[in-house]
């Protein structure tokens, strides 16, 4: 882990520590950074879905086997 010296707003850091339930400055800053990364990844994923990133999942579902017996035959051949 890299050691970096930064000026941090003490009131903002205290508020963040309360929100995250952290006890140290390092834990608070790391929790805040992780939160920002997680939020951005969720936002990017939701944008991807909104832009059609998933195929249409509302249509009929094709069965994996015609019948349960067909599925058993496939399983038996694999064994």
Can you walk me through this structure?
- This protein is mainly α.
- It has one domain (10-78).
- It is 61% helix and 0% strand.
- It has 3 helices and no strands.
- The model has no long low-confidence stretch (mean pLDDT 86).
Helix content: 55-70%
Radius of gyration over all CA atoms, rounded: 25 Å
Helix segment tally? 3
Main beta sheet strand tally, sense and closure: none
Pattern of helices and strands: HHH
The quaternary organization reads as single chain
Tally of structural domains: 1
Overall form: elongated
Poorly predicted runs of 5 or more residues? none
Please tally the β strands and state the result.
0
Share of β-strand residues: under 5%
**Average predicted confidence as pLDDT:** 86
What is the end-to-end distance? 49 Å
Structural class: mainly alpha
Record the SSE blueprint.
Elements: H1 10-20, H2 25-50, H3 68-78
Helix pairs in contact: 1-2
The gist of it:
By secondary structure, the protein is mainly alpha-helical. It is 61% helix and 0% strand.
């Amino acid at each position: 882990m890299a050691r970096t010296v930064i000026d941090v707003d003490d009131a903002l850091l205290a508020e963040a520590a309360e929100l995250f339930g952290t006890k140290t400055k390092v834990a608070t800053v790391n929790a805040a950074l992780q939160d920002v990364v997680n939020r951005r990844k969720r936002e990017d994923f939701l944008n991807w879905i909104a832009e059609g990133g998933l195929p249409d999942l509302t249509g009929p579902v094709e069965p994996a086997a015609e019948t349960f017996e067909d599925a058993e035959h496939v399983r038996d051949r694999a064994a």
